Amino acid sequence: MTSAHSRVSFSGIKPSGEVHLGNYIGAVKQWVTFQENMKPGDVLIFPIVDLHAITVPFEPLELRERLVDLVCWLMASGLDPKKVIMFVQSENPDHPYLAWLFNCITPMGWLERMTQYKDKARVQGQRVSVGLFDYPSLMAADILLYDTHDVPVGEDQKQHVELARNIAERFNRLYGQTFQVPNVVLKQEGARLMSLQDPTKKMSKSDEDKAGCILLKDDADTIRQKIKRAVTDSGNEIHAGKDKPALTNLMVIYSEFSGKSLQEIEALYQGKGYNEFKLDLAEIVVEGFAPVQEKYRALKKDQAAVGRALSDGLKNARAISSEKIKQVQKAMGLEK
Ligand code: TYM
């Protein structure tokens, strides 16, 4: 059980595709900051959401491998399983159970409005799965099972967290005060990292243009190539703003790795051009990734550590979620 004074933060990541700079800056780095600022009694929960990953076509043989790989990346990025709860969503049946209960109180219209569903359904047509439609209901279950206060995510997930708020409020109204209503937490900069090849599209694992997406596993030369080839805007001066979306995106990456503000970066590059900026940016990213990649390689050889992290995490997660389920069953008249 979480204590009355604890603050709970929760966020998930799918084991689909490779982890990229957008996931890293928009979500994972934020989670590491939460861990650094954690106070006694706070609870941080970061599951690998495999039940969300299977809402689109996937390869069964790759799923477990990707999942273990992802845990290695999360730990290599700084998440410490002694401080945070990491587990596999499908191993905790409370998640799909609560999602079903939410299905029964969520109007279709709420899910039909979700832009992520609409975008994917447009591409997939009739093949689109019921699971994809229902994705936000499962996400609401993930979040609300733990009486979450804060949900640190990238901007593309804001609408889903708002839906979780609506579901919590509706449930509380229908069956009595049961769920904490969560807040979405977005970074000021970096909540929506864009493709390096097209600043109107977000950086994404399913991006067809691989050059637009930097992966955590990319080696130094690949990173240098991708940054060198990144599109820029007209002009040559280093300044952030709506008129320079491609450059601003690169400056956000620079800022994330250097700790310098956008204004400081502008001052640093006054009188210098895109070329010099890009060369420096590439080195900053290469240097920033080096210790993460080194730790990742060590963790890949220590599967026991990953197994331990996940089994401890599952135990801790279930201790909280099973209590919540009992409360929900009582509220809905489903208890024995
Ligand atoms: P996933 O795996 O697609 O993304 C993981 C996190 O990375 C963020 N992200 C980005 N942030 C900034 N710029 C980008 N280009 C970018 N691309 C991805 C996402 O916003 C996300 O925070 N639906 C979730 C998984 C989930 C979840 C949850 C999250 C399932 N249940 C409960 C929070 C709470 C997702 O999109 O994962």
Which keywords apply here?
mainly alpha; Rossmann fold; Tyrosyl-Transfer RNA Synthetase; 2 domains; two-stranded parallel sheet; 4% strand; globular; binds tryptophanyl-5'AMP
Descriptive overview:
It contains 13 helices and four strands. Helix 8 links the parallel strand 3 and strand 4. 54% of the residues lie in helices and 4% in strands. The two termini are 21 Å apart. With 336 residues, the protein is mostly helical. It folds into two domains: 215 residues, Rossmann fold (3-Layer(aba) Sandwich); 88 residues, Tyrosyl-Transfer RNA Synthetase (Orthogonal Bundle). The chain is globular. Helix 3 packs across helix 12 and helix 4 packs across helix 7. The strands form two sheets. A two-stranded parallel ribbon has the order 1-2. Strands 3-4 form a two-stranded parallel sheet. It binds tryptophanyl-5'AMP. The site of tryptophanyl-5'AMP has 26 residues, from helix 1 and helix 7. One of its GO terms (molecular function) is ATP binding. It comes from Candidatus Roizmanbacteria bacterium RIFCSPHIGHO2_02_FULL_43_11.
